[in-house]
Amino acid sequence: MPTELQSRREPQPLRMQDGAPIVLEHVSRVYRGRDGADVRALEQVSLRAGAGELLAVVGPSGCGKSTLLELVCGLQAADGGRVACAPAVLMPQRDLLLPWLSALDNAALALRIAGLSRVQARARADILFAELGLEGFERARPHELSGGMRQRVAFLRTLLAGKPVLCLDEPFGALDALTRYEMQDWLARTLAREPRTVVLVTHDVEEAVLLADRIAVLSARPGRVLAEIEVEIERPRVRTDPRVITLRERALGALGMGERR
Ligand SMILES: Nc1ncnc2c1ncn2[C@@H]1O[C@H](COP(=O)(O)OP(=O)(O)OP(=O)(O)O)[C@@H](O)[C@H]1O
Ligand SMILES: [Mg+2]
């Protein structure tokens, strides 16, 4: 089983007005409660991700991480501050594969929506299927796939949307540790081949250190940025590297989890 995370790509020549494909400045989001009690999900969040960067976001449950991704993708609007982003696609927290479509057609869905014929869309998805270890499962329905396979199909669908920015919401959250390790390695290799700017929400601090260029640590609700940690460790990265362990501890410390374990 691969344990090393492959080297990443060169930054893409993708530019927004001020040079970064993702910019959040003093962003706030308040959900209006039905009984009048508002839920402040995010407060004064300022973050940015440069072209080709992988920004990991970690924070306690309910601190606004999924909300943040939806703001970045333009699926909801901020109540305060500014969000600017290049075209982005969301891989939601649950894989949301369509049960009546085959694995291949699920992966090719964005291409079909973009107007490609079924034959063209399937052909494009098919090339990546083999590379992702899904060969032989093209015609399987989602319920016939393992959890890791479903995640890969969902990721493939996200990738094939062809957007420069990928927002991944706990893509490996539901997987057991061994499968997660494989998927992390696979994601690193895939991004090395198919460069994108990525926001990766994860509850796994080690995963953030292994994959990210920078980690934003959010507070409990309302989510605010408690710390930003640069990960300047060359790739491939390994879990046992003392620098990985040190940064993991730093992130846990910022979350207030340092001494509790
Ligand atoms: N559509 C909504 N309407 C009302 N409240 C919402 C809505 N979506 C999220 N919330 C609330 O906003 C807060 C942040 O939710 P969000 O899903 O962004 O958190 P999260 O950090 O992704 O949590 P988790 O780690 O459990 O996935 C929560 O208190 C949640 O109940
Ligand atoms: Mg969430």
Describe, in plain words, how this protein is organized in 3D:
The protein is of the alpha/beta class. The protein has two domains: 1-87 and 163-261, Rossmann fold (3-Layer(aba) Sandwich); 97-162. 32% of the residues lie in helices and 22% in strands. It contains eight helices and nine strands. The chain has helices at residues 65-72, 103-107, 109-113, 118-131, 147-160, 177-193, 205-211, 242-254; strands spanning 22-31, 39-49, 54-58, 80-85, 88-91, 165-169, 197-201, 214-218, 225-230. A six-stranded mixed beta sheet has the order 5-6-7-3-8-9, sandwiched between helices. It has a three-stranded antiparallel beta sheet with strand order 2-1-4. A hairpin with a 7-residue loop joins β1 (22-31) and β2. α4 packs across α5 (147-160). The longest helix is centred in the last third of the chain and has 17 residues, at 177-193. Adenosine-5'-triphosphate binds at residues 31, 39, 41, 61-67, 93, 221.
Write the layout of secondary structure elements.
Elements: E1 22-31, E2 39-49, E3 54-58, H1 65-72, E4 80-85, E5 88-91, H2 103-107, H3 109-113, H4 118-131, H5 147-160, E6 165-169, H6 177-193, E7 197-201, H7 205-211, E8 214-218, E9 225-230, H8 242-254
Parallel strand pairs: 3-7, 3-8, 5-6, 6-7
Antiparallel strand pairs: 1-2, 1-4, 8-9
Residues 31, 39, 41, 61-67, 93, 221 line the site of adenosine-5'-triphosphate (ATP).
